[in-house]
């Protein structure tokens, strides 16, 4: 079968893939989207109640503002999808997208001598990667050759992270129904209501997806035959009820230059580093102020949900979640219950059992246990590059959140998180476009690895949940350095 040769291939049609296609559109990239729609997790991993975690003005492309950007409400997932489609249509990006085209394999065409010294040009002048694609219409694999490939499949969706159970104590012995949130997202309103209504439902997890799901479960269980939805919480995280604290907008505490000056960041000089250490009591005080507000505002102690770690750590790891307005009122009315469990658990015939021998009966168990994004990459990226996707710390080594210096002619967009992923994704794609056009040169491989280590050290020092790879505490510095590298004024 003939191989189609192009300059740039983009894998994934979510926010990152569409942003990359827009910035690289002069090269007519090919975007492979495994489904029939753009939008990524906003399309395929959202509930009816899913909303953005920030006001819309903090989640927009620089050259495509929201039509109602002064509306401070959090847009729904459908509004996000409409906005993304409008953006892709306005900049005529959809013509590059091949829908229902799943990438199943990558082949490296270059040499395997390892990387040292200079990284080299992204456009090598000849194909470096072959991409095997399977379409919905055929089981045959079509092959495309590219000079470089942009991976935008993201860390979420597609492959669920399923807990491991002792032998003969897994879902197979449970007489009820077990599903992951990714399965729940595929249900329509009638199907989800039928699944939950009048049932004893257990949800494992206490992050945003689990919280939203508990609200939907409680709303489906209104009526005389109601059953409380039980959330099994292993690690509690700080949640906030809205986007202000003691009457001040939340961004003032963490997302201004003044607030981020209090926090460690890569490449800060001796004097800023000294001031940062001297002002550390102020940094801890800010975290304590927010914690005291949340403890006063929310019944965290009543339900045993007050975290043992500082609020700073959740923000620095992108773990903070904004609660639906009716979450704790539903708990107060008996529609949502909580079970703290720090130990192992497994199934028995009528529900789940914990290491302390306590049991919970259930009709339905839903696993809000996250996704295995690295498994998606390992499934398509060949050896030896597959072994280079993670450092021993568990984080992906990405220079400017984009380039793995040890993998040639391949970039990753959407794998390092921030408080506004769209904003940092767009600036990285602008940086990538300038790099492809050879408007600037990359540092040596060793210097890029050194920069990556500096950022990882900051993450590891600021939060115990660093494996998510989050730059929220130094996002402004991150964007400044990207701009400076392009020769732009921050």
UniProtKB/TrEMBL annotation:
Keyword annotations from UniProtKB, A to Z: FAD, Flavoprotein, Monooxygenase, NADP, Oxidoreductase
What protein family is recorded? Answer: Belongs to the FMO family.
Q: Which cofactor does it need?
A: FAD
Detail which positions bind FAD: 16, 33-34
- Could you tell me which species this protein originates from? Handroanthus impetiginosus
The protein's name is Flavin-containing monooxygenase
For this protein, the record's SUPFAM superfamilies field holds: FAD/NAD(P)-binding domain (SSF51905)
Q: Name one GO molecular function term.
A: flavin adenine dinucleotide binding
Superkingdom to which the source organism belongs = Eukaryota
**What lineage does UniProt assign to this protein's organism?**
Eukaryota, Viridiplantae, Streptophyta, Embryophyta, Tracheophyta
